[in-house]
Amino acid sequence: MPLAPTINLDARRTIEKAFKDLEKTVSAGDRISLQHTTLDDVRKAAHLVEDELAARQSLRNMRRLEPLFTGLEYYSKTIEVLCNGTPYMPWIWAPIKLVLKISSDYIEGFEKIIKVYCQIAEPLKRFQKLNRAFYSDKDIQQTLAIFYSDILRFHKEAYQFIRRSSWRLLFLTSWGRFQRRFEGIIQDLKAHEELVDKMAIATNIAESKDWRKELRQEMETWRQEQVERMAKEETEEVARQYLAITSYLKVDDSINAKIFDAIASEAVDSAGTSSWILSQSEIQAWLRCHPSSTFILLHGRPGSGKSVLATQIVQFLQASQQSLVMSHFCTYAYEESMDYDKLLKSLLLQLIRSDKDLIDYVYDMLLRKSRVPSSKIVEALILDSVRASSLDPSRTRYIHIVMDGLDECDQATQSKVTKLMKRMVSAAFSSGSTICKVMLSSRSSPAITKTAKQSQIVCLSNENKHLEKAIEAYALHRLSLLEMELSQPQVTPDDISDLSYRIAKRAEGMFLWARLVLDYLANNMFLQREEVLSAPEALPRALQQFYEKILTQITSHFDERSLERMKLIFEWIAFAKRPLRKAEFRSALAFSSGNPDTGELAPQYLFDKCSPLIEERSDSTFAFIHVSVREKQ
C-alpha cells in the first residue's frame, strides 16, 4: 500500500490563511456561488460574457484568457496534496467568473481588468513542465503555497474593486493605485516562478538543502519588503493628496475639534449626568446599526444641555467603532462654524478622511480639474462620497451624523443644512450598501422642522424625570466640593442632599439655571444656614432675570469707566471673528484705551470681574457661559 504523500504544514497554513482572508471579504451570497465553481464553469462564463458583449456590439476577445485557464489547471494539480479534504481549491479560479460578470457592464473597466488577469498566465506556464515528483517535496510545497496566496490576493483586490458601491464612479481615479497593487502581485508571482525552477534543479543535490532554505528566506524577505514599500508609498501619496485638498478648500478642520472638546469638557466636569440619553428609546433606536430611525431631531430649551448630550452621543458612537461618525457643532464663538460653505467642506473632509479611493476621487475632481469648490460642487462631492462610501462588499456601511447648534445659524442656513442631510440619507439608501443616520440637535426652529417633516422628534421637555436626576447628581457633586465651607454656617450633609434635590426640581430641566445657582452659592458669602438653603427659591427662574441679577451684583460698585470696560469685554466675545486667547484679549483691551504706545497688557483680573457670565476655556480662549447670554446683551 503506497504511503500518503507528506505535507508541509507551514505550506498548508499559508494556503488556509489566504483562503480565509478572501472568504471573509466575499459577501455571503457570493461565497455560496463560488464554493462549488469548477474551472469549466469559469470557461463557460467567459464565453457567455463574450456572447453578451457581442449582442451589445461591444465584442471582446475572451480567448485571451485561455492561457490563464490552462495555467490554473496545471497549477491546481501541483497543490492537490495540500488542498485534499479542504474547500480551498475552487477559489483559485472561481472569483474570475464573478469579476467578469460584474465588470462587463462597464467596458472600459472590463478591458483593463482582463488585461491584468492575462498577465497571471505567464508565471503559471512553468507548471506544465514541472515533474509530478516535485509536488511532494516540502520545500517546493511552501513555494507553491505562496503562488496560491498571491493568486487569492489578486482575486481579493479585483473583487473589492468591482464590488465597491459606485465603483464605476471611482474607476478612473482609483485604477492607477489598484494597477500598482496588481503589478506588485504579478512581480511576486514571477519571482516565485524563478524560485520553483531553481529549487527543482537542485532537488537531487543532497548539499542543496541549506541553500534552498536560504534562497526561500531571501525570497520571503524580498516579498515582505516589497509589500511594505508599496504600502508606505501609497500611504504617503494619500496623505499628500488629503493635505492638498484641505489647503485647496481653505478650511481649518481643527475648529470643529476645538468646539467639540470645549463642550465635551463640561461633561467631564459633571461625569455621569448625561449618560441617560444613551438609554432613551428613540435615541437608542437611532444609535443602532439598523436601517430604521434614520432621521431624528433633538429639541430642547436654551440651557437644557443639548450640546453636552450631543458630544456624549458622538463619543459613544466613536467608542463602538461600528460606523463612520461625523459631527459638526455650530456656535457664535466661531463664525466659521455657522458658515454654510465651511460647514460643507468640514463634512466632506470627514467623509473622505479614512478612504483612499474617495480622497483620490475628490483630489481629481477639484485639484486635477482645477474646479472652484463652490457650494454646489462640494454638495455633489458629498453625495457622491456617501454613495461610494461602502468599503466592505460583505457588510452594510453605516454613517452617523450629529449636527448641533443649527439654530444659531440664520434661517436660510438651517433650511439648506437640513435639506442636505435629507439628501445624504436618500443617497446612501439608493446605493444599496450604505445607511446614513442623521441627528439634528437644536432649539425648535420652523426652518428645521418644516424641512425635516415626518422625522422623529425627541423633546427634552418630555424627559424631565431623567433631567432632574442628572441635575441633582450634578448639584450634589458641585455642593460636595463646598462641603467644608458650607459646614461652617451649619449646613449638614442632609441639607446638601435636600438642596441638590430642590435645585433640580426648580431647574425644570435647565442645566444652565442649576449651574448659575451653584455658581452663586460658590461665589457669595453666607452668614447663616438659611441663607444657603433658601437660594433656589430666592433666585429668579427666568434666565434673563437671572442674568440681570448677576450683572447688577457684579456692577453695583463699578464706576462709569469700569462699566465701559466690561461692556468692551462682552463686545469682543460677542463679535470677534474667532475666540481670542488670553494674551490676545489682554492686548486688545490695552490698545482699546486709545494709546497706541502702550507697552503693558491689560491685567488678568478684569476677566475675573466678569465671572460668572464669561468663562475661560481649556485652550485659554474666552466665551459666554451660554449663547443665551449673548442674546440678552
Automatic annotation (TrEMBL):
Domain Nephrocystin 3-like N-terminal: 272-443
Pfam families: DUF7708, NPHP3_N
Domain DUF7708: 69-207
UniProt KW keywords: Repeat
Top-level division of the source organism's lineage: Eukaryota
Keyword presence, Repeat: yes
Keyword Repeat: yes
Name of protein: Vegetative incompatibility protein HET-E-1
Classification of source organism: Eukaryota, Fungi, Dikarya, Ascomycota, Pezizomycotina
